[in-house]
Write a structure and sequence with these properties.
The complex is a heterodimer. By secondary structure, chain A is mainly β. Chain A contains no helices and 11 strands. Chain B is mainly beta. Chain B is 0% helix and 50% strand. Chain B is built from no helices and 11 strands. The chains are: A mainly beta, B mainly beta.
Chain lengths: 113, 113
């Protein structure tokens, strides 16, 4: 079983739609939860992070974590064509000095006009 | 700041050849990572390092080797290249154990024929 599961999509939505992206994880030791955005032929860039259960909002983006269900989500409101990218969830587990950063498979999002 | 720099950007190797993918960062980050990204498969961790002289295996280390003689550099060595190693390779760095943001290089596209 993979430590982090994410539906690869692709997901196609019209401009202005609300987008919901999700990941599940199996390792209860994960401490930090992040969403990265990756445009085509570029490296991923951090979009949002959180370390506790609950919601965190940043503009049109809301990150949600439910540690009891081992489930994280990213919501995008009023989606724009510029949001078209691959969204990867990522998680960190630290043990001693080690700090491993694990990614989901990524969900490819296409926002159409 | 240049951030994380990877060279080369593209490379074609013949089966059985070897090469080194270079990665250097100028942010004085302790943590460095090598990932490979296959189409629709997300980022798989190959090796990571928590500081100079310390490296550890990730999810898919077979066929690769790394070294970390300085804080800045984290080269990835491919010995006896195989077609299964055709992928996009990303190097990333993080400042510390509890810092969530990883900075990625632009990637190296490697084709083994």
């Amino acid at each position: 079983q993979k430590e982090v599961e994410q539906d690869p999509g692709p997901l196609s939505v019209p401009e202005g739609a609300i987008v919901s992206l999700n990941c599940t994880y199996s390792n209860s030791a994960f401490q930090y939860f992040m969403w990265y955005r990756q445009y085509s032929r570029k490296g991923p860039e951090l979009l949002m992070y959180t370390y506790s259960s609950g919601n965190k909002e940043d503009g049109r983006f809301t990150a949600q974590v439910d540690k009891s269900s081992k489930y994280i989500s990213l919501f995008i409101r009023d989606s724009q064509p510029s949001d078209s990218a691959t969204y990867l969830c990522a998680m960190i587990v630290t043990t001693g000095t080690a700090s491993k950063l694990t990614f989901g498979t990524g969900t490819r999002l296409q926002v159409t006009l | 700041n240049a951030g994380v720099t990877q060279t080369p950007k593209f490379r074609i190797l013949k089966i059985g050849q070897s090469m080194t993918l270079q990665c250097t960062q100028d942010m004085n980050h302790n943590y460095m990572y090598w990932y490979r990204q296959d189409p629709g498969m997300g980022l798989k961790l190959i090796y990571y390092s928590v500081g100079a002289g310390i490296t550890d295996k990730g999810e898919v280390p077979n066929g690769y080797n790394v070294s970390r003689s300085t804080t800045e550099d984290f080269p990835l060595r491919l010995e006896l290249a195989a077609p299964s190693q055709t992928s996009v390779y990303f190097c990333a760095s993080r400042e510390g154990r509890l810092n969530t943001e990883a900075f990625f290089g632009q990637g190296t596209r490697l084709t083994v024929v």
